[in-house]
Design a protein that fits this description.
The protein has 435 residues and is mainly β. The chain has a single domain, classed as Neuraminidase, CATH 2.120.10. Helices cover 8% and strands 54% of the residues. The strands form seven sheets. The protein has a four-stranded antiparallel sheet with strand order 1-28-27-26, with no helix packed on it. Strands 2-3-4-5 form a four-stranded antiparallel sheet, with no helix packed on it. The chain has a four-stranded antiparallel sheet with strand order 6-7-8-9, with no helix packed on it. Strand 15 and strand 16 form a beta hairpin.
Length: 435
């Protein structure tokens, strides 16, 4: 009798385990699945182009703020616009330009500040006549209804400042802005940072993280509430003086209290000698606050370097790679995210979803240079891709792409936004996905 009971238990376990694994996999597959239809984020269109740049999330209300560059067709300079959407993707504000008239405003980055109850937006501005314009990184708080929440602030001013990104310290309400600076004696760029207050007013000095960056790896920053630190990812390049440049993706931590360096600079991927710029490029970084870890994603062409001498053609074979980092930014696992190696998966973005405990990676798959194929794939907390790629939008006859993503713990969903030339101009389209 005891032998039969033991056999029955073993059979039951064998029967249950596959079902349990299947149920767990089904639950995991839900992360990244679309939960609503496509919708156009910007109003109007036709005589202007809109290029999506950033999504910020309000964890209290479940709302999203989308920030983009608005580019008129009539030759007027670009502007920065924002619009707020509720948890279901319905607009709760008009689209608004968040600055006065200027010569050139573009490339916004946005984050929500739980201390002030406002969003904070930073962007780049060019002023003055070409070929010697002045560059600024500007900041401004934005109210939950999308209206400006304070005066315009200048974070830095001079020559060569561009491509800012922003993370907010959820304890103090202060933030750190990171950006490129080309005003440098050599051909490389500086990656720099500066701490700002909740009002956008700069605090402390400008800090240089590296002096060997370039345009193909603008810095990206995230805040880690467990360690009270920021983590910054960026690309570096060093020419060997002959025919080869050595590329790498690196990361560095900044203290949450004052923005000063803590720990050492780490290699995330590389260094890799290459004759074309595509070796590794366009990094992004997200923090898993549940495990006190990070995930860095980037465009990766290492597998195909040397197979095609034409740099632009070689880009057709770019992959998306994810590297899991521990709390000290030490690499722990590297995995390829995309499934199809025959096309270009470029400029990935990543966000961590506390609702599922997984990362969501979005990217643009380019079969040709005249299509939009926005895709998403989830990556486990341990750095393993899970499930298959999910297509969020496909237009074989439209240019655009370059998706951005923000995840909201209040709604347990994420919003993905991208640019889409399906009409006579570029519009910002968006879609909610399961967090």
């Amino acid at each position: 009798m005891r032998r039969w009971l033991t056999l029955l238990v073993l059979v039951t376990v064998v029967a249950v385990l596959p079902g349990a694994a299947a149920a767990d996999d089904a639950a995991g597959r839900a992360a990244g699945w679309p939960t609503g239809p496509l919708f156009k984020a910007n109003a109007g269109g036709g005589l202007t182009d809109q290029f999506a740049n950033s999504v910020a999330t309000n964890p209290t209300t479940g709302e999203y703020l989308v920030a983009w560059t608005h580019w008129p067709h009539d030759g007027d300079p670009p502007d920065v616009y924002v619009r707020v959407f509720d948890a279901a993707g319905a607009p709760v504000s008009q689209q608004r330009r968040i600055h006065g008239p200027s010569t050139w405003d573009s490339s916004p980055a946005a984050a929500y500040n739980p201390v002030s109850g406002q969003y904070l937006v930073v962007w780049e501005r060019w002023e003055g006549a070409v070929p010697d314009p002045q560059n600024k990184i500007l900041a401004r708080p934005v109210n939950p209804d999308g209206t400006p929440g304070g005066p315009l602030r200048t974070v830095v001013t001079g020559d060569g400042y561009a491509t800012p990104d922003l993370a907010v310290n959820t304890f103090s309400g202060e933030g750190v802005v990171v950006f490129l600076n080309s005003d440098h004696p050599t051909s490389e760029y500086l990656v720099q940072s500066r701490r700002i207050l909740a009002s956008g007013k700069p605090a402390g000095k400008v800090r240089t993280l590296t002096a060997i960056a370039d345009w193909w790896g603008p810095p990206r920053v995230t805040f880690n509430p467990v360690a009270d630190e920021y983590a910054v990812a960026y690309r570096t390049s060093v020419w060997d003086g002959e025919d080869t440049t050595v590329y790498a993706i690196r990361a560095r931590r900044l203290r949450g209290s004052d923005g000063q360096f803590t720990g050492m600079e780490r290699f995330v991927a590389g260094p890799f000698p290459a004759s074309t710029w595509q070796a590794v490029a366009y990094p992004d970084i997200a923090c898993n606050q549940d495990r006190n870890e990070y995930l860095v994603v980037f465009a990766d062409n290492r597998e195909f370097l040397g197979t095609n001498a034409d740099a632009r053609a070689a880009e057709q074979f770019t992959d998306v790679t994810a590297v899991r980092l521990d709390d000290r930014l030490r690499p722990r696992r590297e995995m390829k995210v995309n499934e199809d190696p025959d096309f270009a998966e470029i400029i990935p973005r990543v966000a961590y979803s506390a609702a599922s405990g997984k990362y969501l990676v979005v990217f643009d798959r380019e079969e040709t240079y005249a299509d939009v194929d926005v895709r998403i794939r989830r990556v486990s907390a341990f750095g393993y891709p899970q499930g298959g790629e999910r297509r969020l939008s496909y237009r074989p006859d439209a240019e655009g792409g370059r998706p951005v993503i923000g995840c909201n713990v209040a709604s347990m969903e994420c919003l993905v936004a991208w640019s889409d030339h399906r009409r006579s101009s570029y519009d910002v389209f968006a879609r909610l996905v399961e967090g």
